[in-house]
């Protein structure tokens, strides 16, 4: 049975019952007449039609509102994307920010107090980095350092340009640079922000044997690979060691700092490092220089440096170890024993997190000798113990005690060092 | 062996320039290891779901600041979601430039973390899986830290820290997206 038929039957039944109802109504005079009833029905029909119209309008409005919301959401999305693009492209400040964003300022510094036979306070280093990326592949890197706070005639400090080079990314794995750069050797020479190492003062081995901070001018090349190996090769200016006096052939005294440096005899440095296991880095460096007297003696004083280091951090446990050794040729360095110079240290440490920042403890045993070729005992040894406290990762407070064991025991002392350092 | 500096330097410079000239022409602007779209597709077995958007509301800002140490530099984060699995493409500055990282989180733990675009000249080790594999199974603690130790890389502390922050951020955003 169709719906239509159903309706017809219902209607027929309805009419029949209305007729019955109607005849009974007719008997009651107080009820509305058929005409009046018809008028009521017509009026109700009008009201129903009016209501239907309003429902229709409301539905249309609802659909329109939904569409409007959709359009608004789209607009918000577009605006958000635009603002993000605008901000990140630097267009927000008239396009000049993009150039400014490619120039980066950074720096680090450290203030030290040393209490030993003589007490001293020293703002040891104040360093400013200025880098500029010409594009994603070519960048300029520089580092200017003010040492010991005051520079000038008769003042303790100096202003030094420690790095200034242009670096080129040749591909994903190879980079080349030219200019003044830090010699790729040891642990501290290239990475020496105060928060990255233990002890207020840098260790004596890297200071007197490597000799950190050591920079030269020249060209360098680096290749890295997926297994965690990196290879460096650099051709650069060399040391110019004094050839007489108490510092004859002392390595640290040979640093020219690329200031109108004597450059008749250069050096080649190579390094291999492996950091393919998280927390571990091992490195090997070798350097050869034809004449660290730079042609000022009748003979050539060729010099070879070999060094190896390991830097291991697992959980809170850390271990750093380094060995470095120089061999000088010619007859002159043999006179005071400077033909052989070496040093080593081992430094276990433990670092842990607290609510208020990280705390680390360390101990270090170090030995170095700039005159190891001499018959007498010229070896100096040091034992350090102390702690670092990092309230945040860029700021460190340090405290340590150093016990000395000089070859000349009259120099022995205990030194308490306190320091604060930062980098950004 | 006659190793005088001028000769050596000019020779090396010439070699470097020749090499640079021959390689620079078609070098891409940045080192893209895996396009973000490919990362997302890979993370959902080839069928990327439609991206969703999580707005960084004022309610989320304090926790994000606690994780990053600064505000997230966008109004909203796009992500991809399929059941309990979400994928995120996030950026954070290492030393100077942003590192783009893809992170997949499932049931509140990191199942995959991959460096997609690396722009820094230092800390290259963090790009490699021997480092990023450490993040697998890391979860977020109540204090918004990772529940496992990530061993660092000597000389690459800033890049390592940037990746740790992004790992925490992805876990936090995952919680918000599934709320």
UniProtKB/TrEMBL annotation, chain A:
InterPro entries: Porin_dom_sf (IPR023614). It comes from the Bacteria. Residues 1-26 form the signal peptide. SUPFAM superfamilies: Porins. Residues 41-68 form a coiled coil. Keywords: Coiled coil, Signal. This is Porin.
From TrEMBL, chain B:
It comes from Pelagicoccus enzymogenes. One of its GO terms (cellular component) is membrane. Residues 1-20 form the signal peptide. Residues 94-174 form the FMN-binding domain. Keywords: Signal. Coiled coil: none annotated. GO terms for molecular function: FMN binding. The keyword Signal applies. InterPro entries: FMN-bd. This is FMN-binding protein. The keyword Phosphoprotein does not apply.
